## 1
Amino acid sequence: MEVMSIWRLVFIGVPEVLLGILIGLVLCRGSLKEMSKKVLVSKMAVSIIVILSIVYFSRQTFDGIVVHVCVTMFMYVITFKFLWEMNVRQSIFATCIKTYTVAVIEILTIPLYQSFVQWWKTEYFFEPSIAFSPAIRMPQIFILLFFIKFNFARSELLIQKWRNLSVYYKAAMVVIIGSLLLCNIANFNYIDAIVKTNIHNINIDIIGGNIQLFFWANIWFFLMVIGLMYYIFKFLEAQKMVDVPPKNLVLSVAKESSPEDIERYIDILKEISRQKGGRQHG
């Protein structure tokens, strides 16, 4: 792959990693208020340096975009897990969503970028990719703002320990995360194909429509996965309420009821017990 210059690393890499980390944290970890500003800035600086170092050496080592992206995603997971103290599910899910949003933005802006490169003059100080980067960062900022309002940070089913989850939830998480990984691989295979056809000046007009159809099918599949995940979370949360032991349920109702209501509930329970042939109480 093309080796990133220091300018590109600073002006493209730093904002992208910063927004990527913030999107992941807001989406799955939630509030950072318990951290002091000094700790927060230190962790963010370490995250950016570590991830960009891996990005730089990965681009020098691997030729394929897909392999490079997989290495970078793995580094994001490690960073979320050990530096930001998220569990494995949160780390993988945050990484998949962050990576997918970046890929979709880049794919949708490819035609605009190609036109921009033709217009950009070579004597300008910055490379066209650096000058064009704000057009990619702005949608990421809007996505970040969206996730501040709508996220999974407070989902007990996402944050509780793996051993405490039901078999159904574990299976659902494996399917969802596996689907998100496939969506990301498909997107970056698409980008890799576009980049290689541009480098070798290959005319893809004949199959261009099929490639675009593949991309939009991937978008649709991704939305279906997110919708499936939402309803699975809701279903399992409802199931969790239903699975409450009767004794705990009765105690919860009693704590929220007045003495008069409690007496009425007792009479109802006595009547039900009498109808079932239970022992009579005075």
## 2
Amino acid sequence: MMVLCCFFQLLHTSFALADTIPPSDPSSVPMHPRPADWKVIFNRVVSLFHHDGESSEHSSKKMKGLARAVSSFQPSCVLGLLPVSDEATLSMEQVDTFCFLRKEIASTNPHCKFEATLNLTRYPTASALLSKLQEISLKIAPDIFLLVVPKNNEVVYPSVLAKGIEYIHEHGQVVGYEGPTSMIPDGIDFLMICAENGIIHREEIASLRMKHRLPILVRVNKSFWHESSTSSEQHTTEVEQAKLLIHLAEEQNAFGYHFVYPVLSALAMRQHDFHDAAESSLLVRMRALMMRFN
């Protein structure tokens, strides 16, 4: 009887102690998206890249027009708001630009995700990479990091990259990779492939999907947006660009990738003030393609 009484007293004490321990707050640790979420996140992707790994700077009066143009796509994901090309601390202008555009776009697209791009070759040590990731996360808190190895610099530090991927996931963020396909790291959430001159290879996409089982995003490179010297050449260029955009958009399901619609590239080529950008012919065409295929 004495043993039984002691047991119930101990049990009562355990419950009392449990009641005094505050429950953990689930919101304090961001939740990393599940694979089932990828189709939603990458369903309607737009890019603000102007050149490979760079973005254009805009005055404040142009921002509203740019934000309206992007918002008109009803994007699920916006790439290129912050390409970080060096080790320097983020400037106030970079932070303000990112935050302003995110706020404007998210006001009409509340579930949209926003990305920051990082050049991996600038960070040869884990401490340098983690320091930069921490700085970016604290200042702008992007939903996605795209880690890039430039085409002509095939140097990857596997242990450093692994630490970076681990840090990003621990903070509930998504991480992608763009670079040599022979060096694709473990642990990433998606791949970015560049369609050189608007050309993609079905066999390459199929092989990558089979081997890595990851979402694949396809973007166009800067040579896709070459300018022409005469009006007749410009018209021909626009026709060719439109054909390639149609091809890349309509082949998404058949090839198994998500097309990244190059909004800023189109704007930079057609209208430098962005005031009526949402109605430029190329953007109207891209919006129609997105509506049809995404």
## 3
Amino acid sequence: MSDKGNFKDEFYFINKESFPNDFLPVYKKAEIHPKRIFQSAVILPFHIPIQSGTCVTMVLDDNLAFTLVFGDVNTTNKFTAGIVRNEPFEIPVSRTVAEFNLVTSSAKFHEEEGEEDFDLMSYLFDFYANEPTKWLEPISEETYLSLEK
């Protein structure tokens, strides 16, 4: 049987092996007893100099937590600008992977989930696109202000 198209647990930092020992205690401490987890990851078009595996968990309300886990992807890009010969050369490129994990102790991620006109996937991806900026903006502003001194 082919693995093509099948989910690979090892693609995520939060997986069957790491969840019980590394992540569940954090959620339990926040009194969140996970019933549902939604995971997604994106390769950012840049590198954040942070150790692979670094994670941040924010408790958003009584039954909802958001865990962001960072990883690295090292590849090469072909570079052709300014070359004399017609042979491009490769440059090593490092990018950051951001893994988004939304964890809830509720049966639903949103109160309108299940209603005909509610698009859960759009809600979750909008959430992932907007929630991290709420944390990163104050951190980057604080860092910028501390550098000015």
## 4
Amino acid sequence: MKKTICILVFFFAALVFVNGDAFFIEYGFKTGVVSSNIKSDFFFTKRSKLGLDFGVFAESKKFKNFQIVAEFHYIQKGIIDAYIIFDPVTYEILDMTELKHRLDYISIPVLLKLSKEYDMVLPYLMFGPRFDYLFSYRSDIYGVLFDEVNNFVLGGDFVLGTEMKISEKISGIFELRYNFDITLSENIFNSKNEAFQVLIGFKFSDLKK
């Protein structure tokens, strides 16, 4: 697991810093909350689970109205469902316990950013593929099920955001994000993750000048 994480960190660093003087010119970080769910044939009584997200990113120079953005996130996904005990004769519900299941991912989105600049504000739209690696999970009861979760998942991200200029080289960021799985995160019950995120952060421009 540690070897895989090191490879992902190396891949992101190579993507950002190889020829970085010519391509990636702005850097920053984001953090916030995640509301996630798992679409699955296994879970019936379920609701979204809250988690955390922390990420760093690099943005390319601008090509007309678009940029390329590479990001590296730690993100908590999962679900809350109920374990129900029935009376075997009457099928009356005798007890119901809330169960929490958390999946920890390293996530690498590579996004296209479309933006339009105003005086102090820059609204933008981002979308593109996302590559997730599952490096840890916690489940109150279904340990065997989560042992079968796929380590690598391909997904997509859609982002609505705005940048607010704080100074010449620093901008504040506010984002609403939706991400989803394209490939299955678990094969037996056709499981896929989806998540909504609210993130804030800071972007630093022209640091080498």
